[in-house]
């Protein structure tokens, strides 16, 4: 299978831009939807930066400028091409925001598969009252061009043919697919957040320094980076909102440590603000 010819991505932040990058590199034409012209320009800049980095590393099979010629932007979902085959949203983890996006997209693109890049929200809940038979979780990992996994999140109302189609598209991107039942935190966020929160609690309790906790997992368990640096990379605010959601769904073992709350309140959100558990 090949990737679809026409793809739309809603949201041009870190994840959205990475998703745009991989579809452009695989041959799709991509429309990036953003709320206004300023954000659209930032999103395109993010895609450019990612493609340029890949080009410098010799990872692109065509010049970045050529791939970018297949990228366009819209500031209104009603302006998406009606024949778009796949629409992926990568906006903040707010269920009402995601639902309103899919409502507009479902009306505009009657044939499109609707995919959410949510890392923890219930796909069935996002799909409630919408055409759920074409709405799936398609969870990418940061940095999208580098991470080999796509986690497909499958709710009970989704036909097998749709799952098979989306699996084929993800594999055409060169990704390996795991299929996970729609449940809180799916497979990856549930485990990733559990380890991340425990690392923060250990730092809070003075078990070891941030550097030593991370080095322990990097060299002892061959993680590419330790759980605290990874939390900085993902964003402390993102981690906190997933933890709060999982605590509600799965109980107190996902309760966020006070240290995480304090850092988020101080605006120490990790790499993107220059300070998290480490200085960047
Ligand atoms: N295209 C674009 N950018 C590329 C690239 C490519 N083909 N190859 C590398 N890069 C980027 C890297 O992302 C990195 O970006 P920054 O400059 O912004 O840091 C930079 O080029 C350097 O890459 P290197 O491979 O030289 O650096 P490295 O060896 O330190 O690897 C890393 C960086 C890939 C991030 C690696 O440390 C790693 O794999 N870390 C773990 C990442 C991880 O666990 N991600 C999952 C996060 S959880 C998630 O995403 C899900 C969720 O729901 C929150």
TrEMBL record:
Entry-linked InterPro entries: 3-OHacyl-CoA_DH, 3-OHacyl-CoA_DH_NAD-bd, 3HC_DH_C, 6-PGluconate_DH-like_C_sf, 6PGD_dom2, NAD(P)-bd_dom_sf
Keyword Magnesium among UniProt keywords: no
Database matches in Pfam families: 3HCDH, 3HCDH_N
Domain of life of the source: Bacteria
Leader peptide range in chain numbering: none
Cell cycle keyword on record: no
Residue ranges constituting the 3-hydroxyacyl-CoA dehydrogenase NAD binding domain according to the UniProt record: 6-182
Pathway(s) of this molecule: Lipid metabolism; butanoate metabolism
Keyword terms of this UniProt record: Oxidoreductase
Domain 3-hydroxyacyl-CoA dehydrogenase C-terminal: 185-280
Protein family according to the UniProt entry: Belongs to the 3-hydroxyacyl-CoA dehydrogenase family.
Protein name (record): 3-hydroxyacyl-CoA dehydrogenase
């Amino acid at each position: 299978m090949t990737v679809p010819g026409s793809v739309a991505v809603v949201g041009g932040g870190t994840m959205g831009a990475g998703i745009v990058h991989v579809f452009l590199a695989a041959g799709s034409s991509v429309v990036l939807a953003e709320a206004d012209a300023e954000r659209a320009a930032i999103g395109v800049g993010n895609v450019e930066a990612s493609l340029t980095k890949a080009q410098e590393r010799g990872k692109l099979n065509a010049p970045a400028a050529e791939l970018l010629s297949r990228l366009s932007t819209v500031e209104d979902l009603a302006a998406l091409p009606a024949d778009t085959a796949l629409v992926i949203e990568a906006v903040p983890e707010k269920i009402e925001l995601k639902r309103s996006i899919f409502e507009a997209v479902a009306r505009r693109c009657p044939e499109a598969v609707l995919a959410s890049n949510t890392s923890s929200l219930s796909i069935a809940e996002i799909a409630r009252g919408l055409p759920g038979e074409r709405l799936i979780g398609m969870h990418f990992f940061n940095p999208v061009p580098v991470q080999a996994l796509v986690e497909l999140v499958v709710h009970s109302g989704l036909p097998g043919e749709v799952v098979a189609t989306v699996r084929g598209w993800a594999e055409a991107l060169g990704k390996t697919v795991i299929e996970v039942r729609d449940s809180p935190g799916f497979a990856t966020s549930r485990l990733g957040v559990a380890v991340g929160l425990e690392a923060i609690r250990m730092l809070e309790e003075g078990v070891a320094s941030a550097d030593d906790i991370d080095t322990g997992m990097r060299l002892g368990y061959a993680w590419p980076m330790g759980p605290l640096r990874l939390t900085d990379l993902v964003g402390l605010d993102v981690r906190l909102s997933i933890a709060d959601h999982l605590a509600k769904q799965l109980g107190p073992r996902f309760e966020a440590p006070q240290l995480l709350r304090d850092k988020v309140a101080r605006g120490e959100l990790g790499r993107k603000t220059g300070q998290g558990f480490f200085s960047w």
